[in-house]
Amino acid sequence: MTNTKGPLELLLRNLELRTPLSEADRSAVLSLPFTPKTLEPSTYTVREGDPPDRCAVLLSGFAYRQKLTGDGDRQIVAIHVPGEATDFQNLLLDVADHSVQMLTRGDVAFVARRDLQELIRTRPAVGQAVLVKILVEAAIFREWVLNVGRRDARTRLAHLLCEFALRLEAEGLADRYGYELPMTQEQLADATGLTPVHVNRVLKALQADGLIQRSKRNVSFPDWERLRQVGDFNQRYLHLEPQLSVTEPHPRSG
Amino acid sequence: MTNTKGPLELLLRNLELRTPLSEADRSAVLSLPFTPKTLEPSTYTVREGDPPDRCAVLLSGFAYRQKLTGDGDRQIVAIHVPGEATDFQNLLLDVADHSVQMLTRGDVAFVARRDLQELIRTRPAVGQAVLVKILVEAAIFREWVLNVGRRDARTRLAHLLCEFALRLEAEGLADRYGYELPMTQEQLADATGLTPVHVNRVLKALQADGLIQRSKRNVSFPDWERLRQVGDFNQRYLHLEPQLSVTEPHPRSG
DNA sequence: CGTACGTTTGATCTTTCTCAATAATGGTGG
DNA sequence: CCACCATTATTGAGAAAGATCAAACGTACG
Distance between CA atoms of B57 and A191, rounded to whole angstroms? Predict the structure, then answer.
């Protein structure tokens, strides 16, 4: 257990994107004990069926959540970008109902779940920031249900690319006009409920239509606005603005 | 604003299903101010784009969350059963990213969002219970992504019927061998990402195979275990047991 | 420089959708 | 109780999106 200050600043920034915190709260977050580690692609961070006793904060690299059907088909249900904690979803649940794995190589800071629970208990404003993040993650799950349930392959993929663009932009990691997409076509298929073959064809079609440019893992968007339209993308569900609706500070009570 | 005690006991029971509360916490929940109202089918409880300033607790009847694509296709992303609060998902978000509507006629208790926020601030254990509920709702969203993304029509519908059975059973409203299903085939289609026509055919096939029995809106399951298998249904994601991991330190080490 | 992984392509097949009717059903006013 | 209307359920025929199968092609890297 180290206690250096640097790494968790990324998490703090992520939380403050939507929920600004006081100095005291910030330093409470920064002084969480953690264990740094570098993980290889596909390393498990949480495993379905296990009690989730720790939470990995992504310092660099990407991770994804996945579920499997009875006959082994995989569905990726979320992607996590650097700065995000990969396990708020299990904060208060006894057994993980899905797995989280590294998408790329990356550095993480493991935080004990108990410490996280303790933090949000003693620092209600931090608890609020975490809850906001949890609610936004849920909003993204809902949009994915819509994406996979009601949009055709072309729209689905364009939508995913748009979401990724805005989330990376929000973290200051890229802009909406292009970025390094760390997913294979098979993973894109698992995230969109398609087959890799079809993903390949659709990506090519998007490229042929001048909606995306690809070279290696880099994608760029010559005409963002048109891609946005094709992807039926409306960023509202990302709730990227600071969420102010919670009015007053907290008078003590017990 | 009334302050009778009865109605909110249903909400309390719902929360305590997974998070038992102390006497003091219970009475704090029960003394939430609320406004009772009877709502007709398809009445909005929350509307996309609006600031969610109140939360409807379902006292009787069912509700659903839905999102729309740009060209008007509907996806139902969640169903709520009696006893549930229909708007924990917007507890700390400024603008609703989806709508909630009544599925059936039903009685609700409107609780001001501010009061709810106040409650969880002053009563951390209640806040915890609410957070557990929010996390379980997110777990259901994830399962729906899998359901809609990776399962065929037959499995998808069987899965939905199983989920419904267990959730109703948990509320003491039915058992897993049958219940009153308040959804039209069109709504079932919107919940599974299918068309009404196909839902009709698949339901008939399930019936022909002796997996379900239908008469009016009533469905029953002559062979639950087989339905469970056909629906690839594993109840883990519903987290129906009391979630104890928070209160007590873990017997395991890290 | 060979092996593993990822991408691309073609041909064919299936599930599910679409379009279009027709039948039930439930609720309403008379 | 009946006639009427609006939903909802059911059925059929044809079309289409996407899946499956199989193979070839690139590329990274030990």
Answer: 33
Residue A201: CB atoms within 10 A of its CB come to 14
DSSP code for A116: H
* CB–CB contact A67 B137 (8 Å): no
Pairing of strands B54-58, B106-112: antiparallel
B198 CA: nearest nucleotide by C1': C16
Task: Inspect the interface and report whether the beta carbons of A138 and B89 lie closer than 8 Å.
Answer: yes
* Nucleotide with the nearest C1' to A196 CA: C7
Looking at the partner chain, which of B135, B150, B243 has a beta carbon nearest the beta carbon of A75?
A: B150
A246: left (phi over 0), alpha (psi -120 to 50) or beta: beta
The verdict on a CB contact (< 8 Å) between B144 and A139 is no
Count Cβ–Cβ pairs < 8 Å, chain A vs chain B. Answer: 183
Contacts of residue A117 in chain B, CB cutoff 8 Å? 246
Which two structure tokens, joined as six digits, stand for B214?
Answer: 């239908």
**By CA distance, what is B129's nearest residue in A?**
A92
What would the pLDDT profile of A127-156 be if each residue is shown by its tens digit?
A: 999 999 999 999 999 999 999 999 999 999
Smallest CA–CA distance, residue A130 to chain B, in Å, is: 10
Q: What is the DSSP letter of A2?
A: B
Q: Could you tell me the CA-to-CA distances from B98 to A150, B6, B112 in Å, in that order? A: 15, 30, 19
Cα–Cα distances in angstroms (integers) from residue B70 to residues A138, A154, A205, B92, B253, in the given order: 21, 14, 21, 26, 50
Q: What is the pLDDT of residues B54-101, one digit of tens each?
A: 999 999 999 999 999 999 999 999 999 999 999 999 999 999 999 999
Domains of chain B: 9-143 (2.60.120.10), 151-238 (1.10.10.10)
Q: What does the alpha-carbon distance between residue B173 and residue B194 come to, in Å, rounded to a whole number?
A: 27
CA dihedral A87, A93, A96, A99 (to 10 degrees): -20
Q: Which of A119, A134, A108, A96 is nearest to A31 (CA)?
A: A119
Q: Answer positive or negative: Cα dihedral of B131, B135, B137, B141.
A: positive
Q: What is the dihedral of CA B190, A198, B154, B97, to 10 degrees?
A: -20
**pLDDT digits over A109-122, tens only?**
999 999 999 999 99
Nearest residue of chain A to residue B237 (CA atoms): A97
